[in-house]
Structure formats: structure tokens, C-alpha cells
Amino acid sequence: MKNTESIVEQKSFRFSVRIINLYKFLQENTKEYVLSKQVLRSGTSIGANVNEALSAESTSDFIHKLGVASKEVRETSYWLRLLNETQFIDTKSFDSIHGECLELLKIINSIILTTKQKQEEKKKKSE
Q1: pTM
Q2: In this predicted structure, what is the pLDDT of residue 65?
């Protein structure tokens, strides 16, 4: 699981950097301040929650914190779609960053599912 964790940690950090750069672009070039702040908050929160999960106190805490990260990914996807539909970001930029967003969602949800399955197996063995 350590390799998976480091991959999700790295990908969520890189995604946060992209979100910050998008935020700066929106602020400087389009003078968009409301939606850009929303995508900044949710987009950078993903990595923060992933990092919290990596130092979780228990398996349940790990699952919970990754669950929060998953919700933040979904929220970020919403803001990105809204920015694209209102033409604050072009389709090419949207496709790139939104694709990365969906990839993060798949990774995080996969880790949650695998961890839950292992937790259930462990419970069954101890019964």
C-alpha cells in the first residue's frame, strides 16, 4: 500500500500546483475572482486531505480522510466544469486538468475500496 500512497500523494500535490496556476491565470487574465477562489480551495484541499490520511491514527480514520479527499475532488470537478461552460477556461485546458481530476478521483476511490475490503477480511479472520 505504501507505493499507492506515495503515488496519490505525488499526484495530488502536482494537481494542487496546477490548480494554483489556474487560479493565478484566472485572477490575472480574466479578472474572475469568485469561481477561481472556489476551485482553489477545493483543488488544494485534496492534497491536504490525502496527507492527513497518510498520517491517520487508524484504518477507519484513513478511510474517512480519503473520503473527504474524494468529496473535494468531486467539488473541484464541478467548479472546473462550470469554469469551462462559462468560457473562463478553454476546452483544451479543461480537458487536461479535468482529466487529471478524474484520474485522482479513481485512484482515491480505488484506495478506499481496497482498504475497506482488507478491513472486512481482517474482521472476518478475527471472528
Answers
A1: 0.91
A2: 98
